[in-house]
Backbone:
């Protein structure tokens, strides 16, 4: 009994102390409000599908924080908002809180953003990765993306250099030079991504081939890990992925297979296998759109970030895994891309069913029948992200084998 | 022979407590939960717990819009809980709410997509409601038939049916996805609004009204109807039910049909009423949360209004915490977990008395002498 009483006493004391501490400390972290002392006088909100545990959303959150810092504003960030009515609710709630620009980061948010845009005419709604702004005809609804296929191409060049090094070291023969790629869905954004990555690798090692598998989810750690292991067991000597978890990079680290990542560096978890990663830096777009809204200027219906705007970025090359001279080669290729002397989807560099393309109608205007509506091959290359910001390259080029297409 | 020392703590079953004592214990539990939450908040984040609590409150009720959204979420959760309750009262563990909602949602989406251009508005709504209710009912009836005919385990069966429904939805999402490969359907009939429930006042009111009417009906059904009585008897003891001439199989089938039908209706309300889309995560685990809502209210439909409001409040509130303080959602979930732990845990102290050594009654305990009260916790035999 005595023990119990003393235990209770100690507990009460502890509670008292802690409660005291809690009461005494000034509340340093009040709800974020717009700082009016400096910077723009505007409130903005960001709607995220997941939270910072997803590399995809983290990339947006970091971009927004960076833009906020640069403009002197404190953005309101709502995380874990599903692709349903909750997105409209969150957008409307941000409008209630006084936001003049509302961003959303996930493809499935688009229709709910449009719904909100129709209702709140004096608020700008900016949706990343969406496809409908150019056909919706709303003044306050905008899409944005980046020419990430150029970043992927550069990442592919880094992969090609690594393959070349492995061939020269006798670890891989030219005939067995097979890349593995894990995609989420057979969606144009993914297809554009793996094709540009492959073309980058093939610009260094022309014999390279690639196998692609799909997980049916943007974030499924187990499925991505299993997919990576499946590809490694099937003889792939280098892996890259377009899905958001650490599943594939960690599987590569465990198997000692080089990995080219996406959305951000995975070097801390994969010091021996991470080569480089491409990512979209959203800060330039956020800055552009927020400044435009603050000044009352029109925001582009479709905004495509490029290498030049600082929207398409590569992480630092990991010297421990990458081939020698990778950084120098990447700088050289990047210069050519920016100068327009090199085009990723140059029709000289790929064939479809054994033939070079001279014409292709892409599905730029979203419709349930997936009808091609816009001629995208001109001047000898496929014009990606020009007729709308979101990618529409969905050709199946020779050299790439899709292992499954169920998604 | 030396006298054996009495144990430090021992428990005795309480007789039914007067209402004020029971609510006193519940109030004490909530206060204790808030104190523990305050400690956890201060220690782990350094935030002022009071400002965290007020943020939670404002997240759920702070603006007119938030009030309506919390109301809508309460209504949806209540609707699912209402659906599960008849089965639970029969001591039939319908853990398939999730799947029954999804299959109802799938049926609704199918009518909206396939008949959206060919049927006039009211007819499309009617077809949608019928399809959703029928789909939900069939999904619940399958495990019920197996239970009634071959006495299979309904807990596992209904649970497994969830996965089948989820995969069916995943399949049709890919069939109907726009654009190709995106894995999303988007808002169905966004331009024409065909098959959408009409907006009365605001987009949440109609849904709340439907669920309110359903709550009253369910209360009457369970408390005053012959069916409701039969459900209770079957729940108490199948043998007794048979003895008094109740056809147990019939009651099981009929009750599960009702349970599934209301789940299907919930799916309809979600697709035609609020979300206007179909995803595998549409039900979002609410089919399971509703189990807790129903238990918390001891399967009383009126009580479930409050337990579903509590859950909706906690979920909306913890969402706002993460936005306002830049914390991960997990933190809000921790607070929610602590609060629910205390609220559920306090029922133990309402049913049992804690005796400390020294104060313990001297005479030997007579455990089997007192019969358990009618509360579900007191039930000793189980049909699971």
Residues:
């Amino acid at each position: 009994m005595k023990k119990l009483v003393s235990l209770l006493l100690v507990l009460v004391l502890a509670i008292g102390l802690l409660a005291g501490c809690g009461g005494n400390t000034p509340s340093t972290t009040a709800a974020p409000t717009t700082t009016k002392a400096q910077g723009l006088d505007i409130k903005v909100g960001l709607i995220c599908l997941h939270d910072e545990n997803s590399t995809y959303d983290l990339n947006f959150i970091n971009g927004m924080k960076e833009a906020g810092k640069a403009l002197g504003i404190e953005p309101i960030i709502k995380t874990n908002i599903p692709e349903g009515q909750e997105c409209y609710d969150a957008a409307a709630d941000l409008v209630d809180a006084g936001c003049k620009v509302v961003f959303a980061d996930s493809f499935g948010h688009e229709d709910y953003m449009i719904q909100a845009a129709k209702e709140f005419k004096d608020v700008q709604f900016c949706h990343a990765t969406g496809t409908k702004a150019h056909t919706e005809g709303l003044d306050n609804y905008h899409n944005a993306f980046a020419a990430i296929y150029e970043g992927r191409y550069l990442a592919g060049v880094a992969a090609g250099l690594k393959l070349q090094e492995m061939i020269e070291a006798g670890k891989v023969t030219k005939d067995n030079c097979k890349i593995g790629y894990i995609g989420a869905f057979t969606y144009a954004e993914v297809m554009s991504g793996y094709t540009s990555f492959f073309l980058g690798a093939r610009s260094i090692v022309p014999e390279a081939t690639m196998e692609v598998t799909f997980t049916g989810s943007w974030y499924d750690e187990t499925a991505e890990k299993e997919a990576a292991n499946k590809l490694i067991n099937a003889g792939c000597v280098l892996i890259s992925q377009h899905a958001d978890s650490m599943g594939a990079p960690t599987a590569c680290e465990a198997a000692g297979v080089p990995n080219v990542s996406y959305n951000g560096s995975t070097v801390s978890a994969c010091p021996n296998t991470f080569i480089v990663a491409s990512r979209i830096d959203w800060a330039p777009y956020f800055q552009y759109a927020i400044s435009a809204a603050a000044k009352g200027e029109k925001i582009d219906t479709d905004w495509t970030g490029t290498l030049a705007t600082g929207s398409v970025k590569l992480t630092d090359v990991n010297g421990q895994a990458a081939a020698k001279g990778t950084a120098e080669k990447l700088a050289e290729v990047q210069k050519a891309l920016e100068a327009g002397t090199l085009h990723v989807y140059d029709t000289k560099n790929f064939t479809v069913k054994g033939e070079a393309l001279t014409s292709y109608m892409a599905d730029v205007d979203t419709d349930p029948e997936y009808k091609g509506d816009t001629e995208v091959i001109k001047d000898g290359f496929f014009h990606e992200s020009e007729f709308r910001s979101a990618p529409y390259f969905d050709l199946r080029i020779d050299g790439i084998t899709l292992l499954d297409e169920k998604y | 022979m030396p006298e054996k020392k009495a144990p430090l703590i021992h428990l005795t079953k309480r007789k039914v407590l007067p209402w004020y004592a029971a609510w006193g214990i519940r109030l004490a539990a909530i206060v204790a939960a808030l104190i523990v939450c305050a400690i956890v908040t201060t220690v782990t984040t350094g935030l002022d717990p009071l400002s965290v609590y007020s943020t939670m409150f404002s997240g759920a009720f702070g603006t007119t819009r938030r009030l309506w959204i919390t109301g809508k979420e309460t209504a949806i959760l209540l609707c699912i809980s209402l659906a599960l309750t008849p089965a639970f009262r029969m001591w039939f563990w319908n853990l398939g709410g999730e799947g029954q909602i999804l299959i109802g949602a799938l049926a609704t989406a199918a009518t909206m997509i396939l008949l959206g251009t060919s049927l006039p508005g009211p007819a499309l709504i009617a077809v949608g409601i019928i399809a959703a209710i029928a789909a939900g009912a069939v999904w619940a009836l399958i495990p019920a038939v197996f239970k009634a005919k071959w006495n299979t385990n309904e807990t596992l069966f209904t649970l497994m049916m969830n996965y089948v429904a989820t995969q069916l939805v995943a399949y049709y999402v890919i069939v109907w996805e726009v654009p190709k490969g995106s894995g999303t359907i988007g808002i169905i009939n966004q331009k024409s609004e065909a098959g959408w429930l009409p907006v009365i006042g605001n987009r949440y009111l109609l849904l709340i009204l439907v669920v309110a009417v359903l709550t009253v009906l369910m209360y009457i059904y369970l408390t005053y109807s012959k069916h409701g009585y039969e459900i209770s008897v079957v729940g108490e003891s199948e043998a007794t039910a048979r003895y008094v001439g109740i056809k147990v199989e019939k009651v099981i089938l009929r009750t599960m049909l009702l349970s599934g039908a209301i789940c299907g209706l919930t799916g309809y309300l979600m697709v035609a009423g609020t979300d206007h889309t179909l995803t595998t995560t549409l039900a979002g685990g609410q089919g399971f949360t509703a189990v807790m809502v129903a238990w918390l209210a001891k399967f009383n439909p009126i009580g479930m209004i409050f337990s579903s409001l509590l859950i909706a409040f906690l979920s909306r509130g913890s969402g706002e915490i993460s936005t306002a303080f830049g914390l991960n959602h997990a933190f809000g979930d921790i607070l929610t977990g602590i609060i629910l732990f205390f609220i559920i845990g306090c029922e133990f102290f309402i049913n049992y008395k804690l005796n400390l050594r020294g104060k313990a009654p001297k005479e030997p305990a007579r455990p089997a002498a007192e019969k358990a009260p009618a509360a579900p916790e007191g039930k000793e035999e189980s049909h699971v």
